Amino acid sequence: MPAPAPARHPAHDALLTRWADLLTTAREATTEAKTPSPVPYGEDLLTRWAEPQRRYHTTDHLLAVLDRVDELLPHVQAPDPAAVRLAAWFHDAVYLPDRSTNEERSARLAERALTEAAVPAPRTAETVRLVLLTRDHDPAEGDTNGEVLCDADLAVLAGSPEDYGAYAAAVREEYAFVPDDTFREGRANVLRHLLGLSRLFRTPAAHDRWEAPARHNMTTELELLGA
Fold first, then answer.
1. How far apart are CA 218 and CA 222, in angstroms?
2. pLDDT tens, 150-179?
3. 44-47: which pairs have CB atoms within 8 A and are 24 or more residues apart?
4. Confidence tier at 128 by pLDDT (50, 70, 90)
């Protein structure tokens, strides 16, 4: 007997509408006589974000990143807001905790899907570039598109102690197959990398709001890991 399908996220329909509006905007004035419906692409993405192996990289994370992008864009001069939002949708669309190529595979998915969906080639290429930036969250100075996406993706680090604790616990659950000592070492390396960045958050609005609490949260976690 097949396993029952997972329950749909409460924001599923709203997210699907949000996706359809974004894809329509991102296509601009296409010269193609007929373009594919946005709905199958959105449904595929939402199915991916709801996969059972996810504990942190879930639909809730997608929704949070999209909301943070919307918060930050009014404060910066991003040259392609549509590409930033598309990259938010695709940045963890492929996610297997035991793989180290999730960003590359997510970028390839974005390239295939957006090309097929009649998004202009320059915007598709920019989306792919932005997805790949989430490997290290270290955009070049002046890369405003990249700064907004990376800041939105890292905003979880600045949550309340309770929210940050829930985030850290969810990350550990995703890596439940990794022995404790190995996980602590790997997690500590990730935290050290982020803490070693001269600025975690590159946009002024995000830096002012989130830099100090994020560094406090990560330093505390690093201490708890015994690193």
1. 6
2. 999 999 999 999 999 999 999 999 999 999
3. 44/113, 45/19, 45/89, 45/90, 45/93, 46/9, 46/12, 46/15, 46/16, 46/19
4. very high
